[in-house]
Write a structure and sequence with these properties.
The protein contains 7 helices and 16 strands. It is α+β, with helices and mostly antiparallel strands. The strands form 6 sheets. The chain has a 6-stranded antiparallel beta sheet, with helices on one face. Strands 3-4 form a two-stranded antiparallel sheet.
Length: 318
């Protein structure tokens, strides 16, 4: 199967050759979370690729059933609708990481801004009329990760509490990176020491490719068109050769609309309630999967959050 030319970051074209220890490289791909996923990995001889593919599909469906705001029956959708339900591990991890980055970014990264995303048509609802300042101010009164808390009940289950029933969450800016992390953990549990996992253009890689070198990842560089243009041009800026890291690119060059000759991009600054107007079109964040003290937990989810934070701020974080 040939990948669309527009699908980036580019995955290395690999020869699926044998490797030491009885491992062999396999390639798998499919659809999930409104987009595509691709995996190239080495597997132990005892692991059947068809069974591994089925397990990954089940994991992706499980995550979708927890975190998707487009899936009306997901845990997130039901919580947003006001149901009181026990939280699963997927939602707990994403909530806690989101709160951490909300604090560190001083509100620039904020999944609780879901009502704002919906108001502008970049959340789980279609765009309507351009919001008035009064509408924006009204919505901002129940936004902030401090509007939520997690209670642990006597039976050990965790419940999400809201300060206002209108509070909602949207994990789109972190969930795909988290999905890469979870798939990587599954592959490592199988004994895979070499892999590249890509979900919705978010990438996590470890070890070496089948050629015995680092993984090859292409990075997009968009070019802004005229204000009223239908879309921005996109071309490859650079080719990275990386391993043992997460690589995430966030940008405003694919998701936007034009009203009355004005361009509204999907990156919303929760602190102003409006789409950002700076000139940064994309930000690529690379976070090592290992540090001096050991494994960096949820490195791709962290890179995902930091890429969004960078887009809100209009600068790449250092």
């Amino acid at each position: 199967m040939h990948l669309p030319k527009s699908l980036l970051p580019l995955l290395a074209v690999l020869l699926l050759t044998g490797c030491s220890g009885g491992e062999r490289y396999v390639r798998m791909e499919g659809f999930a979370q409104g987009g595509t996923w691709h995996i190239i990995c080495s597997l132990p001889a005892k692991a059947r690729s068809a069974a591994v593919r089925d397990s990954i599909d089940r994991l992706l469906l499980e995550i979708d059933g927890s975190l998707s705001g487009y899936n009306r029956g997901s845990l997130l959708s039901r919580l947003n609708a006001g149901e009181e339900l026990p939280l699963d591990d997927h939602l707990l991890v994403n909530f806690r990481l989101s709160r951490q980055y909300w604090l560190e970014s001083e509100g620039a990264f904020d999944p609780s801004a879901a009502p704002l995303f919906d108001l502008w048509g970049f959340g789980f609802k279609e765009a309507g009329a351009i919001p008035t300042q009064r509408q924006i101010d009204s919505v901002r009164t129940f936004i902030g990760m401090d509007c939520f808390r997690i209670d642990t009940l006597e039976d050990g289950t965790c419940r999400l509490r809201k300060s206002d029933p209108r509070c909602r969450l949207n994990f789109n800016a972190i969930a795909q990176g988290y999905t890469c992390d979870r798939v990587a953990l599954y592959l490592e549990a199988l004994g895979s020491s070499n892999y590249l996992v890509e979900v919705g253009r978010e990438i996590l890689c470890k070890g070496l490719s089948a050629r015995g070198d680092k993984w090859t990842v292409g990075v997009e560089m968009p070019k802004r068109q005229d204000e009223g243009g239908a879309e921005d041009a996109v071309y490859i800026k650079d080719t990275l050769h990386v391993t043992d890291c997460a690589v995430v690119t966030s940008g405003d060059y694919r998701k936007f609309y034009v009203r009355d000759g004005k361009r509204y991009a999907h990156t919303i600054d929760p602190r102003t309630g409006r789409p950002v107007t700076h000139g940064l079109l994309s930000a690529t964040v690379i976070i090592p999967a290992e540090s001096d003290t050991g494994r960096v937990e949820w490195s791709c989810a962290r890179a995902d959050a930091c890429a969004t934070w960078s887009m809100v701020e209009g600068r790449v974080l250092h």
